[in-house]
Amino acid sequence: MKKSIMAISTALLLGGVATAQKIAFEEYNLDNGMHVILHHDPTAPVVITSVMYHVGSKDENPEKTGFAHFFEHLLFEGTANIKRGEWFKIVTSNGGTNNANTSDDRTYYYEVFPSNNLELALWMESERLMHPVINQIGVDTQNGVIKEEKSSRYDNRPYGKIINVVKENMFKNHPYKWSTIGSMEHLDTATLEDFKEFNKKFYIPNNAVLVVAGDFEKVVTKEWIEKYFGPIQKGEKIKKQTFIEEPITQTLKATYYDPNIQIPMLVASYRTPSMKTRDARVLDFISSYLSDGKSSKLYKKVVDEKKMALQIGAVGFSQEDYGMYILYGLPMGTHSSEDLLKEIDEEIVKIQTDLISEKDYQKLLNQFESQYVNNNSNVEGIAENLAKYYLLYGDINLINTEIDLYHSITREEIREVAKKYLNPNQRLLLDYVPATETAQN
């Protein structure tokens, strides 16, 4: 009885927080086109300064891939006023941390400092934008770093090539077909001028959003932002290309031989719409219902009950133009990939035919409420979400309203969206198998 009361109390608390937690922010533009977002939170004496650039691997020349990810590394090399090798020393010696990451759609840099070092963070990010040093020694150094990253994270890691192989087969026209890390051959043959041109085109204030979140004083912060970012020259407007993929109308099949594995993996991937669409959010529900964690339908059925697989799950790629829903499984014992696929298809057909139970529907709502709370539980997460919703979704207030969109999804919609996207003739079936001597020869 006591546990039941505690569980009810926790559920009510999460629901209340998800409903009440509103993220206050202020936004404005500098004259050079840079968008600025401020979120004041004095609960801890820290401040996050971040810049998200609307450039990812999809913006690259097909003959020069890997540039966006390369710049994630290269722009820590130094600036006109920050000597090579000094960036991280400055950050750590002032009590801060920093990092960056790249996707197919954007590149994100951030620093976390004690509040009294906000001006330093703003100056450093403005230096990265205004005065980057792009020279041969930096390019050569980071080329070596990225080769090591590719080797450890992809080439020599068991199942490390799955996402890349899926992308290659799922996209024919869209730049999503190549990996974010890109081609080492392209990077090896790129000239210094190639890198400078990429920087000049994409690392401009009117292709970026600056977010300051945490404990700061607004008036002086705005003065510092104008002081350090205001003088940066506006760049030429970037013309984004539109790439259209024809619908998948028959099952795609592919095989990949991985020398790093001993157990084959079944991969079934479905192309999904832009993350900005309502259908994409419904598919988030379906993904969670089918394959999110050990309480999901597929895990309980295939792993726990029938003991057919060592593991089963999914990876959802929600992206600006298209997405992917990738189901995977490791068959166990005498069971085959075909056996796992049959079980997966049976569960999908159930969703397409019948409404999920009210109990399962409420469980999904609770999961997404909890996820919403967690995503906005600290200023680091809030800063990135503010940048993301502005730059990629075109609606910054989704940080407050997206949970309402999920609440408005009905069980009927779940059934209809499953019918629309999750059919055998609309997917890639990838046999990801161990490399044998015969296969390699």
TrEMBL record:
Q: Give start-end of the signal peptide.
A: 1-20
Q: Which GO terms describe its biological process?
A: proteolysis
A GO MF annotation of the entry reads:
metallopeptidase activity
Keyword terms? Hydrolase, Metalloprotease, Protease, Signal, Zinc
Q: Provide the Peptidase M16 N-terminal domain boundaries.
A: 36-181
**InterPro entries, per the entry:** Metalloenz_LuxS/M16, Pept_M16_N, Peptidase_M16, Peptidase_M16_C
Would I find Zinc among this entry's keywords? yes
- Family to which this protein belongs: Belongs to the peptidase M16 family.
The molecule here is called Insulinase-like protein
The organism of origin for this protein:
Flavobacterium frigoris (strain PS1)
